């Protein structure tokens, strides 16, 4: 019987990036090993997607939960988005 495939989420700071804001070899190896076992790597962060685009590209990660869960992408497809409404933004900025 084969093992079930898993989706493994990684945080950015202190996990995918070290204290020098670089991706350590150990993180790259962990992701490579996960994939070799048939699993998928993903990122979970409070950051906006444009703030970690280079990390995703370097690691080949196309699945992530960003903006503290408000924007979710699975295999480069947006599966959930919860943007702030235009009306609320106008109220907050006094443009209403």
Top keywords for this entry?
alpha/beta, 28% helix, five-stranded mixed sheet, 3 helices, 96 residues
Poorly predicted sequence stretches spanning 5 or more consecutive residues = none
Query: How would you write the strand order of the largest sheet?
Result: 1-2-3-4-5
Mean pLDDT: 94
| Beta fraction | 15-25%
Number of strands: 5
User: Can you tell me the overall shape?
Assistant: flat
Secondary-structure-derived class: alpha/beta
Terminal Cα span: 60 Å
User: If helices are DSSP runs of H or I spanning 4 or more residues, what is the number of helices?
Assistant: 3
Largest sheet, described in full? 5 strands, mixed
Structural Rg: 16 Å
H/E series, N to C? EHEHEEEH
The helix content is: 25-40%
What is the fold's blueprint, element by element?
Blueprint: E1 7-10, H1 25-36, E2 40-44, H2 53-59, E3 64-66, E4 71-74, E5 77-81, H3 86-93
Parallel strand pairs: 1-2, 2-3
Antiparallel strand pairs: 3-4, 4-5
Please describe what this structure looks like.
The protein is α/β, with parallel strands linked by helices and 96 residues long. The chain is built from three helices and five strands, in the order βαβαβββα. It has helices at residues 25-36, 53-59, 86-93; strands spanning 7-10, 40-44, 64-66, 71-74, 77-81. It has a five-stranded mixed β-sheet with strand order 1-2-3-4-5. The longest helix has 12 residues, at 25-36. It is flat, with a radius of gyration of 16 Å. It starts with 6 loop residues before the first strand and ends with a helix. The mean pLDDT is 94.
